[in-house]
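4.2 Preliminary Data

To establish feasibility before requesting continued support, the project team ran the inverse folding procedure on a target of 430 residues. The structure was first converted into the token representation described in Section 3, and no sequence information of any kind was made available to the design step. The complete token record follows.
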């Protein structure tokens, strides 16, 4: 009986090895992470940006993409194909988009569509931009006059995944209005960067090897969540055991920043700390700001699990936190003469005359010291130091030969006994 079972086990093993060799010879080649095919059809770039929608030449999606192509050619900034292919992004001005009367006439609800379906609209822009660059490549690589060369034989440059960046979106939403009803919508928020995380690689596509037949599958990792195949793609295998192949994965740069709301005098709420929101930056947006910068972020509101809901045995399973998946980031530091507009301060003509009158004072420093926290008597030297810290200085260079920069903004440390008004003077400078 033991000999019969042993022989049966050996026969099954030999048959399994034979079956595995047959499937290894039949397995499909490795699916490339970045598609090498040339987009030569009228639906160029369609599969890359709209993988879940079938192309129809007379469909509403195709008509909207044609409208966006016409708008990009006529109204937006000039499209430099080589530069866009290298940088992989293009800025689309929202205000210019709404000023296009022809576009608004043929697509009257485009403003609501951008707000309610932002990811779909950005995909439309990506297809339109991709097709414009594809058409430009065809014209530049066209055959000389008199020569009949098939289009398939022409060598077109590979077009990478492009990222349209929508800028100047309106209205700018205050952080106190960023709530659950904004989920999935396109918003613009303005604030001060208080924290910048490290740049990390985010896997968006990963290959998996089947442990039975060695077949390879490419699975998209949506929003960075680790997702494995459910079953082998081979019709004769149906295995459910896989191992990740990290050599066949596609990663992008990823970074988290934290924005803090800007509170002006008429918006102060007693007893409340400033609100904050986290923003997710990808690709070319990473390292575009540092702590202290005033930025405007346009993007899609999404949710993430909180730390309490991820704990085992936690009763709060449906607790989420809102964050913004940034589509564009505008830094006020890069705009000369536009800082007051970015932080929400507006000056009237009366304020201008008052500033000129203060400027004409003979002893201006004494007036500024007396105006800083007048409820605290004395401490003139401390107030002078705080005022100098507010105004800052100019950046100098230690050695002209090496051009070593020396920061102009000083750090201030106020030390003293309790009850001297240190906190009040610092709060008056905030």
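Position-by-position output of the design step:
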């Amino acid at each position: 009986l033991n000999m019969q079972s042993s022989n049966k086990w050996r026969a099954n093993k030999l048959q399994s090895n034979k079956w595995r060799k047959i499937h290894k010879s039949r397995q499909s080649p490795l699916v490339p992470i970045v598609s090498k095919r040339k987009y030569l059809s009228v639906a160029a770039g369609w599969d890359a940006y709209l993988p879940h929608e079938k192309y129809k030449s007379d469909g509403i999606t195709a008509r909207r993409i044609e409208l966006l192509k016409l708008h990009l050619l006529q109204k937006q900034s000039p499209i430099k194909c080589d530069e866009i292919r290298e940088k992989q992004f293009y800025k689309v001005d929202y205000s210019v988009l709404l000023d296009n009367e022809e576009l608004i006439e043929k697509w009257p609800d485009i403003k609501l569509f951008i707000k309610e379906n932002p990811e779909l609209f950005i995909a439309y822009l990506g297809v339109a931009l991709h097709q414009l660059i594809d058409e430009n490549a065809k014209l530049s690589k066209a055959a000389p006059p008199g020569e009949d060369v098939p289009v398939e034989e022409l060598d077109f440059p590979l077009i990478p995944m492009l990222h349209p960046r929508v800028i100047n979106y309106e209205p700018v939403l205050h952080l106190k209005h960023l709530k659950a009803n904004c989920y999935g919508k396109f918003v613009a928020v303005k604030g001060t960067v208080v924290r910048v995380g490290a740049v990390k690689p985010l896997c968006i596509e990963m290959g998996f090897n089947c442990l039975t037949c060695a077949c390879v599958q490419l699975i998209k990792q949506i929003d960075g969540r680790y997702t494995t195949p459910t079953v082998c793609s081979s019709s004769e295998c149906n295995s459910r055991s896989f191992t990740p192949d990290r050599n066949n994965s596609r990663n992008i740069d990823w970074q988290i920043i934290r924005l803090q709301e800007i509170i002006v005098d008429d918006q102060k709420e007693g007893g409340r700390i400033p609100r904050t929101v986290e923003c997710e930056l990808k690709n070319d947006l990473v390292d575009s700001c540092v702590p202290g910068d005033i930025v405007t972020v346009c993007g899609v509101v999404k949710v993430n699990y909180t730390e309490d809901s991820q704990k085992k045995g936690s009763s709060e399973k449906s607790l989420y936190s809102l964050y913004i998946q940034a589509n564009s980031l505008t830094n006020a530091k890069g705009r000369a003469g536009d800082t007051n507009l970015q932080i929400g301060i507006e000056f009237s003509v009366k304020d201008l005359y008052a500033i000129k009158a203060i400027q004409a004072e003979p002893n201006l420093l004494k007036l500024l010291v007396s105006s800083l926290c007048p409820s605290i008597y004395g401490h003139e030297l401390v107030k002078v130091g705080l005022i100098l810290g507010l105004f800052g200085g100019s950046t100098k260079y230690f050695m002209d030969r090496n051009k070593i920069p020396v920061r102009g903004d000083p750090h201030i440390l106020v030390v003293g006994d309790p009850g001297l008004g240190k906190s009040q003077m610092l709060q008056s400078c905030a």
